[in-house]
TrEMBL record:
Residues 12-76 form the RNA polymerase sigma-70 region domain. Keywords: DNA-directed RNA polymerase, Transcription. GO terms for cellular component: DNA-directed RNA polymerase complex. This is DNA-directed RNA polymerase sigma-70 factor. Residues 111-159 form the RNA polymerase sigma factor 70 region 4 type domain. The lineage of its organism: Bacteria, Pseudomonadati, Myxococcota, Polyangia, Polyangiales. One of its GO terms (molecular function) is DNA binding. GO terms for biological process: DNA-templated transcription initiation.
Length: 297
Protein backbone atom coordinates (compact mmCIF):
# COMPACT_ATOMS: atom_id res chain seq x y z
CA UNK A 1 0.00 0.00 0.00
CA UNK A 2 1.35 3.45 -0.93
CA UNK A 3 1.92 6.10 1.73
CA UNK A 4 -0.91 8.19 0.21
CA UNK A 5 -3.35 5.29 0.31
CA UNK A 6 -2.35 4.50 3.89
CA UNK A 7 -2.85 8.15 4.86
CA UNK A 8 -6.30 8.15 3.25
CA UNK A 9 -7.25 5.05 5.20
CA UNK A 10 -6.07 6.53 8.52
CA UNK A 11 -7.82 9.80 7.71
CA UNK A 12 -11.11 7.94 7.19
CA UNK A 13 -10.65 6.18 10.54
CA UNK A 14 -10.02 9.55 12.21
CA UNK A 15 -12.82 11.44 10.45
CA UNK A 16 -15.39 11.12 13.27
CA UNK A 17 -12.83 12.27 15.84
CA UNK A 18 -11.80 15.24 13.70
CA UNK A 19 -15.43 16.22 13.12
CA UNK A 20 -16.11 16.05 16.87
CA UNK A 21 -13.11 18.28 17.61
CA UNK A 22 -14.06 20.76 14.89
CA UNK A 23 -17.70 20.91 15.97
CA UNK A 24 -16.76 21.83 19.53
CA UNK A 25 -14.37 24.47 18.26
CA UNK A 26 -16.75 25.96 15.71
CA UNK A 27 -20.23 25.16 17.03
CA UNK A 28 -21.49 24.51 13.50
CA UNK A 29 -21.87 21.12 11.83
CA UNK A 30 -21.50 22.62 8.35
CA UNK A 31 -18.34 24.50 9.28
CA UNK A 32 -16.96 21.44 11.06
CA UNK A 33 -17.39 19.39 7.88
CA UNK A 34 -15.68 22.14 5.88
CA UNK A 35 -12.82 22.11 8.37
CA UNK A 36 -12.39 18.33 8.07
CA UNK A 37 -12.24 18.61 4.29
CA UNK A 38 -9.60 21.31 4.60
CA UNK A 39 -7.60 19.05 6.92
CA UNK A 40 -7.49 16.41 4.20
CA UNK A 41 -6.35 18.93 1.60
CA UNK A 42 -3.52 20.08 3.83
CA UNK A 43 -2.54 16.63 5.04
CA UNK A 44 -2.55 15.04 1.60
CA UNK A 45 -0.30 17.76 0.18
CA UNK A 46 2.69 16.85 2.38
CA UNK A 47 4.77 13.73 2.99
CA UNK A 48 3.39 12.12 6.16
CA UNK A 49 5.36 8.89 5.92
CA UNK A 50 7.45 9.80 8.99
CA UNK A 51 4.47 10.74 11.18
CA UNK A 52 4.21 8.31 14.07
CA UNK A 53 0.81 9.39 15.44
CA UNK A 54 -1.35 10.26 12.46
CA UNK A 55 -4.50 10.99 14.48
CA UNK A 56 -2.58 13.37 16.72
CA UNK A 57 -1.03 15.04 13.70
CA UNK A 58 -4.42 15.43 12.03
CA UNK A 59 -5.85 16.85 15.27
CA UNK A 60 -3.12 19.49 15.24
CA UNK A 61 -4.02 20.38 11.67
CA UNK A 62 -7.72 20.65 12.48
CA UNK A 63 -6.80 22.97 15.34
CA UNK A 64 -4.95 25.28 12.96
CA UNK A 65 -7.80 25.17 10.43
CA UNK A 66 -10.40 25.99 13.08
CA UNK A 67 -8.29 28.81 14.50
CA UNK A 68 -8.16 30.39 11.04
CA UNK A 69 -11.93 29.95 10.66
CA UNK A 70 -12.68 31.45 14.08
CA UNK A 71 -10.49 34.46 13.36
CA UNK A 72 -12.19 34.95 10.00
CA UNK A 73 -15.63 34.61 11.63
CA UNK A 74 -14.76 37.26 14.22
CA UNK A 75 -13.68 39.69 11.50
CA UNK A 76 -16.93 39.12 9.61
CA UNK A 77 -19.01 39.74 12.73
CA UNK A 78 -17.12 42.96 13.45
CA UNK A 79 -17.90 44.12 9.92
CA UNK A 80 -21.65 43.40 10.31
CA UNK A 81 -22.70 46.62 12.00
CA UNK A 82 -26.38 46.35 11.03
CA UNK A 83 -28.36 43.96 13.26
CA UNK A 84 -30.71 43.10 10.39
CA UNK A 85 -27.74 42.08 8.24
CA UNK A 86 -26.41 39.85 11.00
CA UNK A 87 -29.88 38.30 11.41
CA UNK A 88 -29.92 37.38 7.72
CA UNK A 89 -26.54 35.67 8.01
CA UNK A 90 -27.66 33.69 11.07
CA UNK A 91 -30.95 32.74 9.37
CA UNK A 92 -29.09 31.31 6.38
CA UNK A 93 -26.69 29.43 8.65
CA UNK A 94 -29.53 27.93 10.70
CA UNK A 95 -31.48 26.48 7.78
CA UNK A 96 -31.27 22.80 8.78
CA UNK A 97 -33.68 20.21 10.04
CA UNK A 98 -34.95 21.11 13.56
CA UNK A 99 -34.54 17.57 14.85
CA UNK A 100 -30.93 17.51 13.67
CA UNK A 101 -30.47 20.90 15.28
CA UNK A 102 -31.58 19.59 18.68
CA UNK A 103 -29.47 16.44 18.36
CA UNK A 104 -26.34 18.41 17.53
CA UNK A 105 -26.83 20.79 20.43
CA UNK A 106 -27.51 17.97 22.89
CA UNK A 107 -24.51 15.97 21.71
CA UNK A 108 -22.16 18.62 23.08
CA UNK A 109 -24.35 20.71 25.33
CA UNK A 110 -26.11 23.74 23.93
CA UNK A 111 -25.16 25.87 26.93
CA UNK A 112 -21.50 24.96 26.46
CA UNK A 113 -21.65 25.98 22.80
CA UNK A 114 -23.07 29.37 23.77
CA UNK A 115 -20.36 29.98 26.35
CA UNK A 116 -17.57 28.76 24.07
CA UNK A 117 -18.75 31.21 21.44
CA UNK A 118 -17.87 34.04 23.84
CA UNK A 119 -14.22 33.03 24.05
CA UNK A 120 -11.51 34.48 21.89
CA UNK A 121 -10.31 32.17 19.08
CA UNK A 122 -7.05 31.17 20.79
CA UNK A 123 -8.81 30.65 24.15
CA UNK A 124 -11.42 28.44 22.55
CA UNK A 125 -8.82 26.34 20.75
CA UNK A 126 -6.73 25.89 23.91
CA UNK A 127 -9.73 24.97 26.08
CA UNK A 128 -11.34 22.55 23.63
CA UNK A 129 -8.12 20.76 22.72
CA UNK A 130 -6.81 20.43 26.28
CA UNK A 131 -9.90 20.17 28.49
CA UNK A 132 -12.13 18.22 26.12
CA UNK A 133 -9.62 16.16 24.13
CA UNK A 134 -6.50 16.02 26.30
CA UNK A 135 -4.06 17.50 23.77
CA UNK A 136 -0.77 18.46 25.49
CA UNK A 137 0.04 22.15 25.86
CA UNK A 138 3.26 21.88 23.85
CA UNK A 139 1.19 20.82 20.81
CA UNK A 140 -1.45 23.50 21.48
CA UNK A 141 1.34 26.08 21.72
CA UNK A 142 2.38 25.36 18.13
CA UNK A 143 -1.19 25.82 16.91
CA UNK A 144 -1.83 29.16 18.66
CA UNK A 145 1.77 30.32 18.12
CA UNK A 146 2.45 30.88 21.81
CA UNK A 147 4.71 29.31 24.39
CA UNK A 148 3.43 26.22 26.25
CA UNK A 149 3.09 28.37 29.39
CA UNK A 150 1.04 30.95 27.49
CA UNK A 151 -1.14 28.19 26.00
CA UNK A 152 -1.75 26.88 29.52
CA UNK A 153 -2.81 30.36 30.63
CA UNK A 154 -5.20 30.61 27.67
CA UNK A 155 -6.89 27.36 28.68
CA UNK A 156 -7.02 28.39 32.34
CA UNK A 157 -8.61 31.74 31.50
CA UNK A 158 -11.12 30.04 29.22
CA UNK A 159 -11.93 27.44 31.89
CA UNK A 160 -12.68 30.18 34.40
CA UNK A 161 -15.04 31.88 31.95
CA UNK A 162 -16.76 28.64 30.92
CA UNK A 163 -17.53 27.52 34.46
CA UNK A 164 -17.97 30.93 36.06
CA UNK A 165 -18.96 31.24 39.70
CA UNK A 166 -22.40 30.96 41.24
CA UNK A 167 -23.52 33.79 43.53
CA UNK A 168 -25.73 31.52 45.63
CA UNK A 169 -24.98 28.44 47.82
CA UNK A 170 -24.94 25.05 46.12
CA UNK A 171 -28.25 23.98 47.66
CA UNK A 172 -29.99 27.11 46.33
CA UNK A 173 -28.38 26.59 42.93
CA UNK A 174 -29.77 23.06 42.74
CA UNK A 175 -33.24 24.28 43.76
CA UNK A 176 -33.16 27.13 41.23
CA UNK A 177 -32.09 24.82 38.46
CA UNK A 178 -34.90 22.41 39.29
CA UNK A 179 -37.47 25.20 39.05
CA UNK A 180 -36.06 26.47 35.76
CA UNK A 181 -35.95 22.98 34.27
CA UNK A 182 -39.57 22.38 35.33
CA UNK A 183 -40.55 25.63 33.61
CA UNK A 184 -38.73 24.68 30.40
CA UNK A 185 -40.15 21.14 30.40
CA UNK A 186 -43.68 22.49 30.73
CA UNK A 187 -43.03 25.03 27.95
CA UNK A 188 -41.68 22.37 25.58
CA UNK A 189 -44.61 20.06 26.33
CA UNK A 190 -47.18 22.83 25.90
CA UNK A 191 -48.57 21.94 29.34
CA UNK A 192 -50.58 24.90 30.68
CA UNK A 193 -51.31 23.30 34.04
CA UNK A 194 -47.64 22.51 34.63
CA UNK A 195 -46.71 26.08 33.75
CA UNK A 196 -49.28 27.46 36.17
CA UNK A 197 -47.87 25.19 38.86
CA UNK A 198 -44.32 26.54 38.45
CA UNK A 199 -45.21 30.24 38.01
CA UNK A 200 -45.93 32.47 41.01
CA UNK A 201 -49.48 33.90 40.88
CA UNK A 202 -48.10 37.46 40.53
CA UNK A 203 -45.24 36.58 38.17
CA UNK A 204 -44.13 39.35 35.81
CA UNK A 205 -42.51 38.91 32.41
CA UNK A 206 -40.52 41.87 31.11
CA UNK A 207 -38.68 42.04 27.79
CA UNK A 208 -36.77 44.51 25.68
CA UNK A 209 -38.22 45.32 22.30
CA UNK A 210 -35.55 43.29 20.44
CA UNK A 211 -36.78 40.11 22.16
CA UNK A 212 -40.42 40.55 21.19
CA UNK A 213 -42.67 40.13 18.21
CA UNK A 214 -43.95 43.45 16.90
CA UNK A 215 -47.31 43.33 18.69
CA UNK A 216 -46.16 41.89 22.02
CA UNK A 217 -46.24 43.94 25.23
CA UNK A 218 -42.96 44.68 26.97
CA UNK A 219 -44.52 43.64 30.28
CA UNK A 220 -47.02 40.89 31.13
CA UNK A 221 -48.32 40.19 34.66
CA UNK A 222 -50.05 37.21 36.21
CA UNK A 223 -49.43 33.47 35.98
CA UNK A 224 -52.14 32.71 33.44
CA UNK A 225 -51.16 35.47 31.03
CA UNK A 226 -47.47 34.58 31.25
CA UNK A 227 -48.24 30.86 30.86
CA UNK A 228 -50.45 31.43 27.83
CA UNK A 229 -47.80 33.60 26.20
CA UNK A 230 -45.14 30.98 26.96
CA UNK A 231 -47.18 28.37 25.11
CA UNK A 232 -46.92 30.48 21.95
CA UNK A 233 -43.13 30.22 22.17
CA UNK A 234 -42.77 26.43 22.27
CA UNK A 235 -40.46 26.59 19.25
CA UNK A 236 -38.02 28.74 21.17
CA UNK A 237 -38.30 26.48 24.21
CA UNK A 238 -36.84 23.59 22.21
CA UNK A 239 -33.56 25.48 22.03
CA UNK A 240 -33.58 26.76 25.62
CA UNK A 241 -31.24 25.45 28.32
CA UNK A 242 -30.38 26.46 31.90
CA UNK A 243 -27.14 28.41 32.38
CA UNK A 244 -25.58 30.72 34.92
CA UNK A 245 -26.54 34.30 34.12
CA UNK A 246 -24.52 36.73 36.23
CA UNK A 247 -24.02 33.93 38.74
CA UNK A 248 -27.66 32.83 39.08
CA UNK A 249 -29.66 30.22 37.17
CA UNK A 250 -31.20 31.59 34.00
CA UNK A 251 -31.86 30.42 30.46
CA UNK A 252 -30.29 30.80 27.04
CA UNK A 253 -32.27 30.35 23.85
CA UNK A 254 -29.77 29.42 21.16
CA UNK A 255 -30.68 27.57 17.96
CA UNK A 256 -27.57 25.60 16.93
CA UNK A 257 -25.69 27.20 19.78
CA UNK A 258 -26.09 30.72 18.37
CA UNK A 259 -27.32 32.97 21.17
CA UNK A 260 -30.68 34.56 20.45
CA UNK A 261 -32.19 35.36 23.85
CA UNK A 262 -31.31 35.23 27.54
CA UNK A 263 -33.92 34.86 30.27
CA UNK A 264 -32.94 36.24 33.65
CA UNK A 265 -35.13 34.35 36.10
CA UNK A 266 -36.02 35.39 39.64
CA UNK A 267 -37.17 32.50 41.82
CA UNK A 268 -39.11 32.69 45.09
CA UNK A 269 -39.33 29.38 46.89
CA UNK A 270 -40.18 26.78 44.27
CA UNK A 271 -41.77 29.12 41.73
CA UNK A 272 -40.72 31.58 39.06
CA UNK A 273 -41.42 35.09 40.33
CA UNK A 274 -40.09 37.16 37.42
CA UNK A 275 -38.61 36.71 33.95
CA UNK A 276 -36.57 39.36 32.16
CA UNK A 277 -36.11 38.46 28.48
CA UNK A 278 -33.02 40.02 26.90
CA UNK A 279 -32.67 40.17 23.13
CA UNK A 280 -30.85 43.45 22.59
CA UNK A 281 -27.32 42.64 21.30
CA UNK A 282 -25.67 45.25 23.50
CA UNK A 283 -27.38 43.94 26.63
CA UNK A 284 -26.59 40.34 25.67
CA UNK A 285 -22.88 41.13 25.42
CA UNK A 286 -22.93 42.62 28.92
CA UNK A 287 -24.27 39.47 30.57
CA UNK A 288 -21.86 37.01 32.18
CA UNK A 289 -22.81 33.52 30.98
CA UNK A 290 -21.38 30.22 32.24
CA UNK A 291 -22.31 26.57 32.24
CA UNK A 292 -23.77 25.04 35.39
CA UNK A 293 -21.20 22.53 36.66
CA UNK A 294 -22.34 18.93 36.96
CA UNK A 295 -21.12 18.93 40.54
CA UNK A 296 -23.70 21.58 41.33
CA UNK A 297 -26.61 19.86 39.62
Amino acid sequence: MSHQAELAEQFDRSRSHLRAVAFRMLGSADEAEDAVQEVWLRASSVDASAVANVTGWLTTIVGRVCLDMLRSRRRRREELTEVTELDRVVARDDAIDPEEEVALADSVGLALLVVLDRLGPAERIAFVLHDLFGVPFDEIAEIVERSPAAAKKLASRARHRVHGAATVPAADLIRQRGVVEAFLAAARAGDLDALLAVLAPDVVRRADRAALRASAATEVRGARRVAEETLTNSGRARFARPVLVNGAVGVVVAPRGRLQLVLEVAIAGDRVAAIDVVGDPTRLRQLQLAVIDVASS
